[in-house]
Design brief:
single chain; alpha+beta; Cytochrome Bc1 Complex, Chain A, domain 1; 40 helices; globular; disordered N terminus; Pept_M16_N; protease; metalloprotease; hydrolase; PqqF-like_C_4
């Protein structure tokens, strides 16, 4: 793979805060960032005082910002008086605006006694502000204006971002800015957001990526902050407060306990939380105890204290992209973000101490995985790399260690049959230190030879140390980077805003803030230095310095596999040592030091002749000309320029992006590709073998910006090519020839079989909701083989069968092709003719190979229930599907799209935010196979059982009737406007444009102008139209609606909790027993006003401690045995309700025989063009 590039105690009013900012931070205005102090006098800033009353002064960076020649946007960097620095971007053609704010503090800055506090802050920060107190005000505003938002907590930074329709940017930015100067940290949301953090952690608990990431952190030197548990959970965040409460250090209040006084803990002045449309018992209870009781209040107090200290304006980098001029954007930023306080904190706190000490280096860590895979990762401590932005020495080395061409480490290990893939690169783990990693994905044989693989890696590094680096190596890397930068296309605006906000903290001249992270400068042969007696250029010296750190005595090897696989290769003394357990995820591991012999071999010169450095890259493009012809308006669709019985070719010459790039999709449909489970398996193995055979050839092309994909799908196989059009036909020819002429290598087939088997088996160990979604799709797709049907077929497949299958698959086909970009009609025709000549197939009619869905009958209510395959996965999942109807009915299609949008945000707000069912909650439209039918689908992943989840989903849908009925005309028009903006949004690059067109070609409907036409029809849609379809197709009381749900039930029952009713009943039993209890009053209130119900074990342990001094053992034992009975009699909401899924609901048909169920459904109709475009025989282009 290519180189890798995971409230103060008193908050003043907004007005007072603005004054404090203006007067208290003036002295810190322009010199707040230590790393910008370099050449400060040479950087030109100009202070401006806008004429607008509400806009405070700010400073403008006067040098022009270096950008791509292709970039038509206008940039400006401004710095506010409080120290916040912002990049504002004027994009005259934008129809989507965005913003991202990065705070230079992440989870490594959590208090030691509250792991996960930065992450908890990210969650609770969104729950209302002084200026916009409703907790879903922000998300609701974005949803109505074709927008969305998200945030993430990293190690040294936390990033918040959104996108929205350009006209709505001022309103969105005002709501966004308030999070950073007047958040409420609403007490009513404390417990729910603690639950959200906890649910997020549980979602990740069985995911190897998270488990191994935390283990690597755990195995740091003592006392290092890298050890911290960044995501946090409810226990890690509330443990300190619970200990204080247990010691009686949280003072008692009228209703129980209180934390130290302060305005930050006062009730929210305006209610931030609206009622649930159909509240459950638990959500009703949480209205009064949602602050989490004394523990929750103390946790929130600590959060506010931490936020007050750490969220400082000078630590914030902001990027705003909009259609407004840079002057308007600058004023907007100054007005909205100047109220943020500069608290005098270190602007960019650094952690220069590396987590690897002597005890961590030179070791092998064996790790047990959940999923079935083998991998080996070698890590080396690395300095923080952004200061090396000019020559990027670590990236230079990654170019070699991650190379896949002849002579590479990848090529050598692959030819030995030991790996399926390899990646390498530098990672900035935190602001101050990084890691250089080489990761190999192993075959079974490779795992058995992991020692040899590790030695070969060190041999390759020794080869690099002993080899000269001609300047053309760096020059080639520089050329590739500069070409990529020169012709970089626009990204989605929020992606770009996040990228820029992240990189504004790099120590580069401000005018290079965009270019420096993307460009690599050639080595200056005149800039020489003496390096231990050897004269070399400065760039090479930087490389040699990094390379010196990549030695065996400084590395750590992590070997990943399941326990039984480790047992096969472990020495007897290792097995005797046993396994240790990481505290947060329970990941099993053991650590051993390399023996002296290994150190000796790994330090010796390279003696593997198959290893050598790569030569020049012949795929670097030389013709980068673009024939730019000004057009009044870009064409809205491709044109059919060639059609034969064998193929149809659609083409559009780029008329809006003007880059020397193109995209080509060649879909080869065959009736043999998916004829049986075994045929489906062989189609997959065939495509994998082709890709495997092309690795060495295609790697240089990929580096040079020319890539391809070849894969199977239910209707056949497809080739997708993208990149610089100069040499795209050359790559296309080589790929197609490899497809046609593949000679199956039995050894590589065995590797591919092993890999496919692992991937499919591991799918069932993934997130519960992905599995329920998979089954939901399967039940309503006409022709799809399940993974369970395909897995048994893998083992028996032979090379001869693959060879015969490939020939049969390609013998009779229909080809659909799209060419879009900087290619003329003649060039596109040349590629399709080349494909026809190379493959030389017989034609079949397009109607012979089609995708169809299965239609639920009217007035049906189906449930298919099964278990989560992973026995240790605590989360169940519900996929709830309602069939709507045909996508070919334009008015119906438009109304149901608007209905789906109206339901989406409330579903998240009610089911996740308010009812806290789980971290994964989504409501959206589902387009079925064949793209002729659609439905509405809700998915919830939760520790609650699926029957309860379905009950809550139906309660939500029932409550939405009133919401829609009472929706004001103004709000309804806002919803319509948001959907219109979504449909009229322009593609941002060639890739997006290609995807839009391809969906219509692939489906066969050819409805290229659907978005624009639907936007016109939308204008006439009324609220009555929406309500009518809601009542007939969605509302649970509808007698005609068609509903199917998949209940995926966890095999791991959640630990029993003791609800308020059970606790009250037990205290009554204690009183009736006449046993005198020490600290009786404290015992009654221990769990009284926490919203978090205690685990049955904790509750029993607590009462055992209270009863033991005064009760005889038999009486105490008898009392404690009543606790489980009371829990059964008074279950916590959602926990005592058919956990096993055995109770049958009235009016529901339970699917027992899936095949019979699918056979009973009617398939959707065959697709046919909605529009006859009449492009042939003569195209307009």
């Amino acid at each position: 793979m290519p180189p890798l590039v995971a409230r103060p105690f008193f908050i003043p009013s907004v007005q007072a805060r603005l004054l404090l900012t203006r007067f208290a931070t003036r002295s810190a205005s322009l010199n707040h960032r230590a790393h910008f102090a370099m050449a400060r006098d040479n950087i030109k800033w100009r202070r401006v005082a806008p004429a607008k009353d509400k806009v405070p002064p700010y400073s403008i960076f006067m040098k022009p910002i270096e950008k791509s020649q292709q970039d038509d946007r206008e940039y400006r960097i401004v710095q506010l008086e409080n120290g916040l620095q912002a990049t504002v971007i004027h994009d005259a053609s934008a129809d989507k605006a965005a913003a991202s704010l990065e705070v230079a503090v992440g989870h490594l800055y959590d208090p030691d006694d509250m792991p996960g506090l930065a992450h908890f802050c990210e969650h609770l920060l969104f729950m209302g502000t002084e200026t916009y107190p409703r907790e879903n005000e922000y998300s609701e505003y974005l949803s109505k204006n074709n927008g969305s938002s998200n945030a993430y907590t990293a190690t040294s930074a936390t990033n918040y971002y959104f996108n929205v329709a350009t006209q709505a940017l001022p309103g969105a930015l005002s709501r966004f800015a308030a999070f950073f100067h007047c958040p409420l940290f609403a007490p009513s949301c404390t417990s729910r957001e603690l639950n959200a953090v906890d649910s997020e952690h549980k979602k990740n608990h069985q995911q190897d990526m998270w488990r191994i990431f935390q283990l690597n952190k755990h195995l740091s030197k003592d006392g290092h902050v890298w050890k911290k548990f960044g995501s946090g959970n409810r226990e890690s965040l509330s443990k300190h407060a619970k200990e204080l409460k247990k010691r009686g250090l949280l003072e008692r209040s009228v209703n129980g306990f209180k934390t130290p006084t302060g305005n930050s803990l006062a009730p929210t002045p305006i209610p931030s939380r609206g009622p649930s449309p159909a509240p459950s018992e638990s959500s009703q209870t949480s209205e009064t105890e949602a602050d989490g009781g004394p523990v929750g209040r103390e946790t929130r107090r600590r959060l506010v204290e931490w936020w007050t200290r750490e969220y400082c304006a000078s630590r914030m980098s902001l990027c705003v992209i909009g259609k407004e001029s840079v002057d308007e954007l600058s004023d907007m930023v100054a007005e909205m973000f100047s109220p943020i306080l500069n608290r005098g904190r270190d602007a960019l706190p650094m952690i220069n101490d590396h987590p690897f000490g002597q005890n961590e280096m030179g070791t092998l860590v064996s790790v047990q995985t959940i999923m079935d895979f083998h991998a080996l990762e070698i890590s080396f401590p690395l300095d923080y790399q952004p200061p090396n932005w000019r020559h990027k020495p670590a990236s230079f080395l990654a170019h070699f260690t991650g190379h896949e061409g002849p002579g590479s480490l990848h090529s050598y290990l692959k030819n030995k049959g030991w790996i399926t893939g390899l990646s390498s690169g530098a990672q900035n783990l935190a602001r101050g230190f990084g890691m250089f990693k080489i990761t190999a994905y192993l075959t079974t044989e490779g795992f058995q030879n992991h020692r040899e693989i590790t030695l070969a890696t060190f041999k390759y590094l020794n080869l690099l140390r002993s080899s000269p680096f001609p300047s053309w190596n760096q020059s080639e890397i520089s050329t590739i980077a500069s070409t990529r930068f020169r012709f970089s296309e626009k990204k989605r605006p929020d992606d770009y805003a996040v990228w820029l906000a992240e990189h504004m903290s790099w120590p580069v001249p401000r005018e290079l803030v965009i270019s420096a992270p993307q460009l690599t400068w050639p080595w200056d042969e005149k800039d020489v230095v003496d390096c231990e007696g050897e004269v070399m250029c400065k760039g090479e010296r930087e490389v040699r310095e990094v390379l010196e750190g990549l030695k065996v005595e400084k590395g750590r090897v992590v070997l990943m596999a399941r326990e039984q696989e480790h047992d096969k290769v472990a020495a007897p003394e290792q097995k005797e040592k046993g396994w240790e357990s990481e505290p947060w995820y329970g990941t099993k591991y053991r650590v051993e030091r390399f023996d002296d012999q290994f150190f000796k071999e790994a330090s010796s010169p390279n003696d593997i002749p198959q290893l050598f450095l790569p030569g020049p890259n012949e795929f670097i493009p030389t013709n980068l000309d673009v024939d730019k012809r000004e057009v009044a308006e870009p064409l809205q669709r491709p044109h059919l320029i060639r059609e034969t019985p064998l193929s149809s070719l659609w083409h559009k010459k780029d008329d809006q992006f003007w880059v020397p790039k193109a995209r080509v999709i060649i879909e080869i449909r065959s009736p043999f590709a998916n004829a049986s489970p075994k045929a489906s398996v062989m189609s997959r193995l065939f495509t994998d073998l082709v890709v495997d055979s092309l690795t060495e050839f295609s790697y240089d092309a990929d580096l040079a910006g020319l890539s391809y994909n070849f894969a199977s799908h239910p209707l056949g196989v497809f080739v997708a090519l993208s990149g610089y059009n100069d040499k795209l036909p050359l790559l296309a020819r080589h790929v197609l020839e490899s497809v046609k002429n593949l000679k199956v290598d039995p050894e590589r087939l065995n590797v591919m079989k092993e890999e496919v088997k692992r991937q499919w088996q591991n799918f069932f160990l993934g997130q519960s909701y992905t599995i329920s979604e998979y089954y939901g799709r399967y039940l309503i797709t006409e022709k799809q083989w399940t993974l369970q049907e395909k897995l048994p077929e893998i083992a028996a497949v032979t090379p001869e069968e693959i060879q015969a299958h490939a020939e049969q698959l390609l013998s009779t086909v229909n080809i659909r092709m799209l060419v879009l970009g900087n290619m003329y009609k003649s060039e596109a025709i040349g590629i399709v003719e080349m494909a026809e000549n190379i493959l030389a197939p017989k034609p079949i009619a397009p109607s012979d190979v089609l995708d169809r869905s299965l239609l639920l009958p009217p007035a049906c209510n189906y449930i298919w229930a099964t278990t989560v395959p992973n026995p240790n996965e605590p989360n169940s999942s519900l996929t709830y599907y309602l069939h709507l109807g045909s996508l070919l009915d334009q008015h119906f299609r438009v109304v149901t799209s608007l209905l789906a949008q109206i339901l989406s945000e409330p579903a998240f707000n009610v089911l996740r935010t308010k009812e806290q069912l789980g971290y994964i909650v989504s409501c959206s439209a589902w387009h079925l196979a064949g793209e002729s039918e659609k439905g509405l689908r809700l998915v919830v992943q939760s520790e609650k059982p699926p029957p309860y989840l379905e009950e809550r989903v139906e309660a939500f849908l029932g409550g939405m009737k009133k919401t829609i009925e009472e929706m004001s005309d103004e709000e309804f028009q806002e919803q319509k406007k948001g959907l219109e903006r979504k449909w009229t949004e322009k593609p941002k690059n060639i890739g997006e444009e290609t995807n839009r067109y391809w969906g219509h070609i692939d489906s066969g409907f050819l409805d290229f102008l659907r978005r624009a036409k639907d936007a016109e029809v939308l204008q006439s849609v009324t609220k009555d139209d929406v309500l009518s379809i809601f009542l007939s197709h969605i509302h649970p009381s509808s007698p005609n609606r068609s509903k199917l749900s998949v209940h995926l039930r966890s095999q791991k029952p959640p630990p029993k909790k003791v609800g308020l009713a059970a606790r009250t009943a037990f205290k009554t039993l204690v009183k009736e027993s006449t046993i005198p209890v020490d600290q009786h009053e404290s015992g009654e209130e221990e769990f009284a006003d926490d919203e978090e119900d205690p685990l049955i074990t904790d509750f029993a342990k607590h009462w055992h401690g209270l009863l033991a001094p005064s009760a005889d053992p038999e009486t105490m034992k008898k009392l404690l045995l009543e606790i489980p009975k009371l829990v059964e009699q008074h279950p916590v909401q959602g926990e005592g309700e058919d956990n096993e899924g055995t109770q049958k609901r009235e009016g529901v048909t339970y699917i027992e025989d899936v095949k019979a169920f699918k056979a009973s459904l009617k398939p959707s109709g065959d697709p046919k063009p909605i529009v006859e475009w009449g492009d042939l025989p003569l195209s307009k282009f």
